Prior knowledge:
Blueprint: E1 2-7, H1 18-21, H2 30-53, E2 58-63, E3 82-85, E4 89-92, E5 95-98, E6 108-114, E7 133-138, E8 141-142, H3 145-154, E9 160-166, H4 167-176, E10 181-190, E11 193-196, H5 199-218, E12 231-237, H6 240-247, E13 253-254, E14 259-264, H7 272-275
Parallel strand pairs: 1-2, 1-6, 2-3, 6-9, 9-10
Antiparallel strand pairs: 4-5, 7-8, 7-12, 10-11, 12-14, 13-14
Amino acid sequence: xxxxxxxxxxxxxxxxxxxxxxxxxxxxxxxxxxxxxxxxxxxxxxxxxxxxxxxxxxxxxxxxxxxxxxxxxxxxxxxxxxxxxxxxxxxxxxxxxxxxxxxxxxxxxxxxxxxxxxxxxxxxxxxxxxxxxxxxxxxxxxxxxxxxxxxxxxxxxxxxxxxxxxxxxxxxxxxxxxxxxxxxxxxxxxxxxxxxxxxxxxxxxxxxxxxxxxxxxxxxxxxxxxxxxxxxxxxxxxxxxxxxxxxxxxxxxxxxxxxxxxxxxxxxxxxxxxxxxxxx
Length: 280
C-alpha cells in the first residue's frame, strides 16, 4: 500500500495559538514559530511511524504549510519506504506541478494538521488557502482546503482516508467525505486560540486513527471525491480588487462583484486555473 500524507500545521498536536502556526505575521516571536515547527516535526514522525507499523509499503510526506519548508530532513524518521517533500510544489517527470508524487500509484490520501474552511464557526484559524478568499465552491458546494486537495486526488481515484485537526475540521471532513477517519486533537476557544489533548496524548490518538484508516482503505471503505464533470469552480474574495485581478486569468469569468469562476474538465485542474500549477 502506498499513501500520500499532505501536512498542514494548524491542526497538529499541542499547537494551541495563532502565533505558533502563523509565525510570519507581524509581531510573531521567532522562538514561538520554532516551537510550532517542532510540534509539527514530532507529529509527522509519530504519524509516519504509525503508518509503517500498519504495514504501509511506501509513503510520501509533503509539507504544505505556508508553502512548505517547515520540516527538516535531518530531524525526520529515516526509512527507505518514506519520501519527504519540503514543498507542495515540485517536479515530477521533469514538469512543475502541485502535490508531486500524487498519482495513480497512490492508494490513499491523508490530511493531517488541517483546519476548517473559511467562515466556519467554532473553528481554530479557519480559512481556505488564503485570508483573501471568503469562500471556495465546487459545483456550488462550499469546500475548504481539504475539499480542494481531495478533489485533486480524485483525478486518480485516490480516496481521502484520514484527517487530523480540531473538532470543526474533523466534522467538516466527516460531512463531506463518507468513510473518512478523523482524529480531533483540539477544540477552538476563539478563532485564534484552542485547547485540547496534550501533545503526546494527541499523537497517540492520531497514530490509532492512522492505523484505522489503513485498515479501512484495505477494506475498500473510503471513496474518492469526484464532483460531476465538467465542474464549475468559484472563488469569492474578500475584496473586489482581488476578484478583478483573478478575472484577468485565461478561462476565468466574473460571477459577481467579488466572485470569479471557471469551468473545468478535469478534477486535477481544481487550482491550476488560479495558481498556474497543478497537472500539465
